[in-house]
Amino acid sequence: MSEDLIQSYSTKDLSIATICSHTALQIFHGARQEGFKTIGICRPERKELYEAFPYGSPDEFLLVDDFSEILQSEIQDRLIDAGAIMVPHGSFVEYVGPSRILEDLRVPTFGNKMSLNWEGNRHQELKWLSDAKLRLPNKFEPHEIDRLCIVKFHGAKGGRGFLLVSSEEEYHQLLEKSLKEGKISRLDADTAVIQEYAIGVRCYVHYFYSSILNRLELLSMDQRLESNIDELHRMGSTRQELAKLGVDPSYVVMGNIPMVLRESLLPEVLALGERTIESSQKLFSPGLTGPFCLEMICTPELEFIVFEISARIVAGTNLFPLGSPYSCYLWGEAMSTGRRIAWEMKEAQRTERLGEIIS
Ligand code: AMP
Known about the structure:
Blueprint lengths: L2 H8 L4 E5 L4 H10 L3 E6 L4 H5 L8 E4 L9 H9 L2 E3 L3 H7 L1 H7 L8 H8 L1 H10 L7 E2 L8 E4 L10 E3 L2 H13 L5 H5 L2 E4 L4 E10 L4 E14 L10 H6 L6 E8 L7 H18 L6 E9 L5 E7 L16 H5 L5 H14 L9
Parallel strand pairs: 1-2, 1-4, 2-3
Antiparallel strand pairs: 5-8, 6-7, 6-8, 9-10, 9-12, 10-11, 12-13
Helix pairs in contact: 2-14, 6-7, 7-8
Bound molecules: adenosine monophosphate.
């Protein structure tokens, strides 16, 4: 980002902008708490939703038919004139795409856009998490499958169509079935990743790395509710019996529930976050800043296997608009991830360090 743009922003009344989806209510709510004006980039049919929640509604709507319109020159100029800083969230990254955010989005964006690219590329993500010395699920080639594995497809949105297999034969059988039913494309099949199915309890930890305070904060954690996998046990059937009934497992996120960890596990969880940040600083300087989430499984031996990173605000943080069982000990007041982002911006502008937290 140009020095001129940073300069012009450093004295401007800034506003916080995002796409009206995912964590937008929380982001606008938090921005308002810190005194920012807010701009919601919204599809006409969604406006009503935000208006139904006045404290989570943006001050100004910028209506678009397609979210990719935010890359149009006039819209970007309008946002820059308004001193907008974009907050990228899951839908933002999905609709616009990490490479277009990196290359074509001129509007200053909270955090380091490079981290979205590293997260979005499977090889780079693996390099990052391995470099951070996190324990990752073992990877298998089809002929090596000797235990329960999860087969992930790159094109599969939100866990739809993932397969559970426990042998090479089952792998080929289910892959062919998914192809025949049009659930996956040939490209999906060719680029599928086979991962050991980690057995334990899932845990999605929400961190915030502050370059302004030079510290890692553990803000909250959640557990995702995924349909239908989270309720399949109620049928009391084996995988094979479910398959005969035509019930395939899927991992489509439909909500989130709050969680806390045994206090004795917190040092390890903090260390995982610290190593992730250190490694990001080494791999793509200045590294990740702002919110991120490590998705992990805690085994019965109380070890954490990390299967994914989200290098941005995650939807599980929506549980804590008024703070969490961890953020209250850090801040002594109701600090959500949305508000934390706004606080960081305010402090960065006050101390003339905006260039360190936007890209
Ligand atoms: P992902 O798209 O990688 O976030 O995975 C979607 C969901 O699949 C996760 O939220 C977990 O419920 C499940 N999952 C992914 N990877 C694994 C794994 N290696 N072991 C067990 N469950 C997993």
